[in-house]
Design a protein that fits this description.
Layout: H1 5-18, H2 22-51, H3 58-67
């Protein structure tokens, strides 16, 4: 993996100032970011799937809720 000298220096300085193991922190950071990406992809898929569903007006929803005794 290649990173810029500036980012490496900032990362090294941060780890050194906090007394953190670089390998451990880098692994955790990558793991967390990958989990975010995966969650974003899952959310996007759900959104795309739901975009195909028919829409219903607020008035219809309200009427159905009243009819069903929910409100």
């Amino acid at each position: 993996i290649r990173i810029s000298d500036d980012i490496k220096k900032r990362f090294d300085n941060y780890c050194d100032s906090k007394g953190l193991k670089k390998n451990y922190l880098l692994s955790k950071m990558i793991e967390e970011k990958l989990a975010e990406f995966e969650e974003d992809e899952e959310d996007l898929k759900v959104f795309q799937d739901r975009a195909k569903e028919p829409t219903i007006s607020y008035e219809k929803v309200l009427a159905q809720l009243k009819r069903d005794g929910k409100i």
